[in-house]
Amino acid sequence: MRTLNKLKLSLFSLILIFVFGCNSSESNNTNLLAPTISIKLVDESGDFEEVNVEVVDVLIKMDDNSDDDNGWISLNSDKKVINLLDLTGGVHEVLVDRFPIPTGTLKQIRLVLGDNNTIVIKNDLDVGETHDLKTPSGQQSGLKLKVDALIEEGFTYDFVLDFDVDKSVIVAGKSGNINLKPVMRVTTEVSSGIIEGSVLPADESAVASVIDTKGTSEIEDDEVISAYTNYTGDFALWGVPTGTYEVVLTPVDSNSKYKVTTVSDVEVVNGEITVIEPAIQLALKVGAITGKILNENVEVTASVIVDGAEVQVNTNQEGVFLLENIPIGVYKITLTPADGFGLTVTELNNEEVKEDQINDLGNITLPEA
């Protein structure tokens, strides 16, 4: 692993979970020495083909934590439609870039979404279908995020909005409607770090995750920070506080031949990027095959072909063989007696290997030549 330094500012941690709110905007005066703000959007996770959201604007409210419609300042974010699932593997979307704001305490950030929100889901024929993402009427005026950050003259402040797609997309029962009810985290780049890495094979979609215990022993305080790998196998976990973590890689397909794989002792420092190197090889689900040869005083070699390569083992003094760490699947087992014993090679077809199980072929007698 290696660490890349990033710009550090004296900010504190702002990791929170938020829901929608509603308000409107007003203008506010700034000067040439005013602090500036940047806001990036990233995607935490989501098992869909596309999740497209229309971002209309980003607003902030200074020194005011009320729910009224006054006091909102527009950050002049460009109106755009963003596929959240493009924001993986360290990719982010800049919503606001170095926009001047007043000094004071930044109390709230509001993400205003439009009506052009859609989702693409594969049907039973494995073809992507586009559906409207409906926004409940009580949440149509914007996503309000509570913040409490001191903004001082002469500094630039960088915020990251982490959109949790899995929790934000809700299928509304019998109606068949698919609703968008965003759940997000907000962090500052200097009050948390980033974990980046890549997974092999790259075409095996997986979810990378760590658990932030919030410094307590209470499980209910734990927060899972996760991200999907992209088409090249890369992932990025944003907003990870300083600490030492176990990174868990979970294949998306429950029927995958790969199993959950972990990387321990990954250290994160606020304001820095920790890169896991080399690429993480997903571990195969494996089992074993055993059997006992009843022919006396003969050594037999048991073998299978795994990914084009032969795996073999000889029987022990009791005539028992054990083929270990064989990837799950169906195999042909070949039993080859040593020369000079007058026995023939025997093949056992369609023998299945299951994860963490031993397929016992029982007692086997090799026929005479």
TrEMBL record:
It holds the Pfam family DUF4382. Keywords: Signal. It comes from the Bacteria. InterPro entries: Carb-bd-like_fold (IPR013784), DUF4382 (IPR025491). One of its GO terms (molecular function) is carbohydrate binding. Residues 36-182 form the DUF4382 domain. Residues 1-24 form the signal peptide. This is DUF4382 domain-containing protein. It comes from Flavivirga rizhaonensis.
